[in-house]
Specification:
The complex is a heterodimer of chains A (471) and B (449). Chain A has 471 residues and is an alpha+beta fold. Helices cover 39% and strands 19% of the residues of chain A. Classes of the chains: A alpha+beta (471), B alpha+beta (449). The interface between A and B is large, with 80 and 92 residues.
Amino acid sequence: MLLLVLGLMACGPKKAPVVDLLAERPPVGPPPAFQPPAAESFQLENGLTVWVLSRPDLPLVSLRLSLPGGSAADPAEHPGLTYLADEMLVHGAGDRDAAQYAEALERQAIDLWVGTDSTRTTFHLDCHADRFAEGLALMTDALLAPRFDAEELDRVRAQQEGDILGQLDDGRAVASMVAWQQWFGAGHPLAHPTEGTVSGIAGLGPDALRASWTGRAVPSRSTLVVTGAVDAASLKDTLASQFSDWVDPAEPTPVALPAAQRVGGSGPAYFLVDKPEASQSVLRVLLPGWTADQPEAVPGSLAVVVLGGTFTSRLNRLLREEKGYTYGAGARSLDAPGFGVIVASTNVQRDVTGPALVDLLAELKKLPAGITDDELRKAQGARRTEMVEAMSTRSSLADSLLNLVERRLPPDGLQRELEALSAATSATVGATLARPTLDRAIVVVSGDLSKIQAPLSAAVPGPWTVVQPPR
Amino acid sequence: MLLPLLLPLLTLHQGPAARAADGVGIDIPHERYQLENGLDVILLHDPSLPQVVVNTWYGVGSKDEVAGRSGFAHLFEHLMFMGTERLPGSGFDELMEAEGGWNNAWTSEDATDYYDVGPSNLLPTLLWMEADRMDGLARAMTRKKVDLQRDVVRNERRQSSEDEPYGALWLEMPAMLYPPGHPYAHTVIGTHEDLQAASVEDVVAFFQTWYGPNNAGLVVAGDFDVATTKADIQRLFGGIAKVPLQERVLPAPVDKPQKALLELTDQVQVPMSVMLWHTDAALSQGDAVMDVLAAVLGDGRSSRLYSALIQQDSLALEVDAYQMSAMLGSVFMISAKPAEGHDLPAVEAAVQAQLSRLAAEGPTPEELDRVRNGIELSFLRSLEDLQDRAASLNRYRYLKGDPGWVSQDLARYRAVTAADVQAAAARLSPDRRALIRVHAEGADRPGVK
């Protein structure tokens, strides 16, 4: 015990009182003021929208170029084409073959890579400010003059094939692939894994990749975000010069998506995937969420934080800290234009697969009843702290702004979002919770079916359908 | 308005002439002092964002576990969140998260690090909570808490190692590399058997031996009032008693593995070879040389191994190299997955051939420039994030006795020469190597061997 024994005045042999210096918890003062920055915005003559946020205190620059399209643009018979084409953009461009292009980047410590998700392709450029001009030039080469050399394409395809097969090794990846496939439905542009399938990318040649890229490199619907040691005025001139040859193609690839909300309503749909010898089972539940343009998206997201966004969230507290079933359980809210999904997930000890799923579904069933004021305050604090942390590095700041772009929010969207989070009440959050209903849920369990299928079916009758992951 | 950090002028290399211009160091401005009970306190004042980080680093890791109690240091890390008499149950996390904070921790062979992040108004509470558990965790320990976290840790082992593709090799690696009884000869996560044997008495003894102010560094970073915080630290931590610690007997250096070859089978689609060698201890000059060597060999598509095995010969799908640094000696690792139609011995031979070539010829000036530029940039980037800076201060304090060692750290990389790298490559010979082959049980790809 931490004690402070007080000395006695000379009055006789009385016992000294003991003071625990740690007995009193300090009060928490008012939260500090915080205003997220807003980016400056302008448009180039070719229609490219540019957002700039200057942070000159360190000589670092981060750039993100976001182009709508993504793996949703894959032809039905070639899932993975977009991913392959995008990866090839930085495997040789302009006068440089793949080796020369890599050497040009890496010699100057320029980090340039291309990311593909289901609805977008994004260039990521991070470098020292002194190397930004070179980095931008190399990125422009990739954007406007990718080579798609056949020999390099064979190598990159082999690596993508390895990645596709590698995902089959991972129970979490398998559960995810199956969940999305079932959520969107076979044949939907968003149903297949971004990397595609081995058969989907087999035989694809340079011409197919070039055609795919050309149709998606559309400046008038793209956005460039830059943070760091730059200023808007000089950057505008630089970009205008750099991208003077970048114009909309004659036939841009359409990017409109068909409806992406799961149809149904007669109860959850249950799916099993075999993962022999797995010592844990992966549980994944998808529920309807809110699209990015819906006003419910922000308050609704707070409920998802309460459900599974922090260590003391409902799911983690129950499944990990009370029951010891798992190393961690969580939930997140994905909101994009056109679709919104809540994903709850955990990996649990194999022999408690049934009880864990029962508990998980019970928590999801309680969600529509709403959240308490204390829970709301915790979720608001968590989101606010997350926003502050994202301001720490140029790279995370660029990613935060990119997230606004993807959700079609304006350059001052961070401040608007903070205001919306702060304005939420437990009542307004509660009003959003009619949407995430188990009636339209997808439930996927990946694990060793020889051990878990029978007890799981007894605990959660289903009916269960055994499926294979796409490959 | 952001305050300028003390950095600057890291020069990117363009060739031998530019290297002569080096000499400017970097720094993480801080203040350091020590309480009478031995607690090392480091303050990093940065009001640029309304946030604080409290990083508490204890000088105990899995290397301090006794036989039959592997995984204990990490299990104890979990137990640090299970409540005290003053803040019982899940109060630690509940209180922190109620005010917008969050926390996490990690355990390695060498140390255990706890970090709390939150808005700047939360700092007094964070300090109080860290002092509270440093003082009194053991008094509130129960069998129920130990049982619960034991189950959580066993699930962590299943998730991060047993079910993780290629995870099994990490469970086998320590015993393959180190002699029995060596502090590194077992895994940080521990075995199921040892975890099940842990008792409340073990936990209390562990706490009373290692968890005290004289075995800890406390870093406070971010937006706070320095004078007030110093007073709080003195009041909250100043009366916590020292712990007796335990004398550590340093093991003899290990130069060769215990076992040269291990063949495993895993539920994976593609086989993999992992090659391992013993190397110099963390933050030594030799450790920096190995980092540079790893980057020459495997960092990026213009690296030696990528160029040769993937670009030129299409022999491999993936190849990586890295230096895993540790206090009592580090391990250098090269991993490679064969491309379709090729096998593990072929990629192993190709890797060894590249090492021999590097040992004979050394790296080119262009290769060294590439690697140096990358290292300089990574040091620059490490100055952005508050959590990274706080952790760096504690790490340097622990390993070097000086939280401000970052400038010397960069200097050791700048001092690496081509001859150093060449000599280091020569030591990566087959007779000093441990080789783990992971065969693909789940392969359904034709031609996979």
